[in-house]
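queue> pop job 88
queue> type: inverse folding (structure -> sequence)
queue> payload:
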């Protein structure tokens, strides 16, 4: 579950690289650990719960040695499935809270799934102190030539847009700083059963019951198979997502 550093606030790529090697920049006062949030696809949906448990246990044991935990899904591939980012972020966050260790470390999410303001707001609300949307940055770099803009400028504009969106979201709740919003989980779950919410999204209201981890895992496995499958119709298609 521990990734190699070489594999891997709204961070740009170079910012994350500095964070991964923060021990060299601070003389060892701060240390970061990259945790791989993917697991073998051959384990199927049933493997997600075990992967989450192992990840939370690894995070708990790492807190004494590391000040920053980086949850990264960059290892996702045909053979490895990424655990849903919000699920793993909130799961690790609340596990550390229950262990009395949360204030001893920071959580950074390095993900390919975050792309809209709401995605970042959710991750922040459930404990992420910083987010690096690596797939967005790679996509912008690839698209930049067709947009008549430099990749660096495209990334800068994206970060600015997301930051302004987050400020708007926070201001509507009467919150003026990211620190106050981080971990506040001002959300209500719809269609998730109580057992699932209590375990991974502790304290979140869930008045309309529904699916649990098993269904979430099945949906993720299905999406993974479609993404890496041979079907030409799906090869270049984007899921509507709602």
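queue> result:
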């Amino acid at each position: 579950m521990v990734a190699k550093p070489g594999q891997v606030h709204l961070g740009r790529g170079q910012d994350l690289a500095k964070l991964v090697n923060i021990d060299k920049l601070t003389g060892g006062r701060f240390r970061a650990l990259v945790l791989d949030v993917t697991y073998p696809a051959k384990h199927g949906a049933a493997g997600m719960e075990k992967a989450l448990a192992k990840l939370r246990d690894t995070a708990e044991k790492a807190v004494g040695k590391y000040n920053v935990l980086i949850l990264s899904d960059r290892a996702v591939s045909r053979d490895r499935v990424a655990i849903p980012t919000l699920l793993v972020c909130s799961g690790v966050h609340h596990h550390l809270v229950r262990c009395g260790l949360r204030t001893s470390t920071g959580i950074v999410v390095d993900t390919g799934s975050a792309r809209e303001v709401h995605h970042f707001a959710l991750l922040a609300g459930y404990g992420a102190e910083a987010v690096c949307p690596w797939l967005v940055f790679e996509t912008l770099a690839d698209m930049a030539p067709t947009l008549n803009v430099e990749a660096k400028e495209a990334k800068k504009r994206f970060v600015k847009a997301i930051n302004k969106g987050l400020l708007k979201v926070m201001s509507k709740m009467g919150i003026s700083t990211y620190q106050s919003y981080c971990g506040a989980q001002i959300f209500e779950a719809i269609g998730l059963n109580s057992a699932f919410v209590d375990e991974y999204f502790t304290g979140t209201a869930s008045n309309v019951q529904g699916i649990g981890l098993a269904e979430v895992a099945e949906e993720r496995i299905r999406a993974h198979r479609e993404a890496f499958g041979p079907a030409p119709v799906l090869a270049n298609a984007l899921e509507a997502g709602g």
